From TrEMBL:
The lineage of its organism: Bacteria, Bacillati, Cyanobacteriota, Cyanophyceae, Acaryochloridales. It comes from Acaryochloris marina (strain MBIC 11017). Pfam families: NAD_binding_1 (PF00175). Belongs to the ferredoxin--NADP reductase type 1 family. Keywords: Antenna complex, FAD, Flavoprotein, Membrane, NADP, Oxidoreductase, Phycobilisome, Thylakoid. SUPFAM superfamilies: Ferredoxin reductase-like, C-terminal NADP-linked domain (SSF52343), Riboflavin synthase domain-like (SSF63380). The gene is petH. Gene3D superfamilies: Nucleotide-binding domain of ferredoxin-NADP reductase (FNR) module, Translation factors. This is Ferredoxin--NADP reductase. Its EC number is 1.18.1.2.
């Protein structure tokens, strides 16, 4: 592409000779949403802070300017593909500047920026299936464009969704809450999106046996890129992350309970990595992503994740990738209920994994910088308490008392249903 040659020339002008620009093409088939748009490129170099990039402006129906809300941001998969291709470029990197330590007070957390009587209308950017072939049901990763409004959120919060249409009384549907699955900068690190992880509720009608589909989860799972979505919130202060970059984070989750944990892990690991690692990463080249000044996370995280089958392990590839890249900081333990057996021969649930690792978890929990989070099905709580109670009692500690103190110290966080 001519623009890449021009870019290379510009870099040379500033004495950057070891940069290699890799050519990549995104076909109409890979990015059908780009079809019919023309693109004006320009390249820029800032020698003062060693950054460079390619900017593009899309032109549709004779209008040039900001990228159109729902169409210009590639889907997560496509961005990942482009990122892999762009990653082949060797280039000078700039390390992140150390950041001032800023405490996140509960009073700083955004709450109810948009209320049900005046929701924000966002746009669906992408809707991707998370359940692999042979898995049970459907669960989608949804990304919404929120750039046209003031919606802000932090890791661990939820948003409300109002499904289109009316209920059987002709009234607008009530709000359903969904845990936010993206870190606060959004999946593209541009502060313009929010993501959800939504399972479509389906169950047999107790009287007729006919399959009933949940109203709001079906509305969300069937959204198409470009569709409007009414959003309220954000809400929730129970699942907030500590600011300490050396904290230990234990995450116990079932199914879609992974949503806040994805948000945590992306914030703690991927955000810095994506924003700082490769100046040739496409969203950065396009000027959508700014470098992160967040201090590197040095604590330990441990996710114990319960799902029904292997294809139901939501975000499995990303989680395994994190485990590979951060073996000292991220640990992943799976409980695959319908494939693995617990010691009694029944389904392997998350509480059985907690019992199996109880000694280690108890040692970790007793450290003052350890925070434990539980999200997903309420049914797991009793077993988790039993396992920790058994191990704590060996040290003469009453688990209920200890847990109460942890809650007071904001070190024990629960969002179960
Ligand atoms: C804080 C919070 C966070 C949440 N986060 C997420 C999330 O990240 N992802 C996610 O997918 N969901 C999440 N939920 C759940 C979500 O809010 C909805 O409850 C869910 O999507 C179902 O809503 P629906 O409109 O599809 O179902 P509805 O149409 O409201 O149907 C639900 C109703 O169906 C009936 N029903 C359900 N199952 C059965 C059954 N087996 N037999 C008979 N009747 C039944 C019950 O009456 C139930 O109230 C969260 C909920 C809360 C409170
Ligand atoms: N996550 C949320 O925030 C949330 C909130 C409210 C409602 N919901 C709704 O709840 C439904 C659940 O879907 P999901 O995908 O999150 O979960 P799921 O796929 O139904 O379950 C996840 C895992 O938890 C296991 N499990 C079931 N009962 C358990 C128990 N008592 N203790 C420990 N583990 C248990 C399941 O095992 P088996 O199935 O093999 O027994 C499965 O392995 C969805 O319809 C969703 O809308 C979710």
């Amino acid at each position: 592409m001519a623009i890449l040659a021009e870019f290379n020339q510009t870099l040379k002008k500033y004495g950057v000779s070891n940069a290699r620009v890799v050519e990549f093409t995104l076909s109409d088939q890979e990015m059908p949403e780009m079809e019919g748009l023309s693109c004006n490129f320009s390249c820029w170099v800032s020698p003062s802070n060693l950054t460079c990039g390619i900017k593009c402006e899309f032109e549709a129906s004779g209008t040039t300017g900001a990228k159109p809300a729902a169409i210009a941001t590639p889907t997560a998969k496509k961005a990942e593909k482009a990122k892999l291709l762009a990653a082949a470029a060797a280039a000078p990197t700039k390390s992140a500047a150390p950041a001032a330590k800023k405490a996140k007070k509960k009073s700083d957390v955004p709450i109810n920026i948009y209320r049900p009587n005046k929701p924000f209308v966002g746009k669906c950017i992408s809707n991707e299936e998370l359940v692999g072939p042979g898995g049970i049901g459907t669960c989608r990763h949804l990304i919404f464009d929120i750039s046209a409004g003031d919606l802000k959120y932090v890791e661990g919060q939820s948003i409300g969704i109002i499904a289109d249409g009316t209920d059987d009384k002709g009234k607008p549907h009530k709000i359903r809450l969904y845990s936010i699955a993206s870190a606060h900068r959004g999946d593209y690190l541009d502060d313009k999106t929010v993501s959800l992880c939504v399972r479509q509720l389906e169950y047999p009608d107790p009287d007729t046996g006919k399959t009933v589909y949940g109203v709001c989860s079906s509305f969300l799972c069937n959204l198409k890129p470009g569709d409007d979505v009414k959003i309220t919130g954000p809400v929730g202060k129970e699942m907030l992350l500590p600011d300490d970059p050396n904290a230990n984070i234990i995450m116990l989750g079932t199914g879609t309970g992974i949503a806040p944990f994805r948000s945590f892990l992306w914030h703690l690991f991927k955000e810095n990595e994506d924003a700082n690692a490769n100046p040739f990463w496409l969203p950065k080249l396009l000027g959508w992503v700014k470098p992160s000044d967040k201090p590197k996370f040095n604590g330990k995280t441990w996710l114990i994740f319960g799902v029904a089958t292997t294809p139901n392990i939501l975000y499995n590839k990303d989680l395994e990738d994190l485990q590979r890249r951060y073996p000292d900081n991220f640990r992943l333990t799976k409980a695959i209920s319908r494939e693995q057996k617990n010691p009694e021969g029944g389904r392997m649930y998350i509480q059985h994994r907690v019992a199996e690792h109880a000694e280690e978890l108890w040692q970790m929990i007793q450290q003052e910088n350890t925070h434990t989070y539980i999200c997903g099905l309420k049914g797991m709580e009793k077993g988790i308490d039993e396992a920790l109670s058994a191990v704590a009692s060996k040290d003469g500690v009453n688990w209920s008392d200890y847990q109460r103190e942890m809650k007071k110290a904001h070190r024990w966080h629960v969002e179960t249903y």
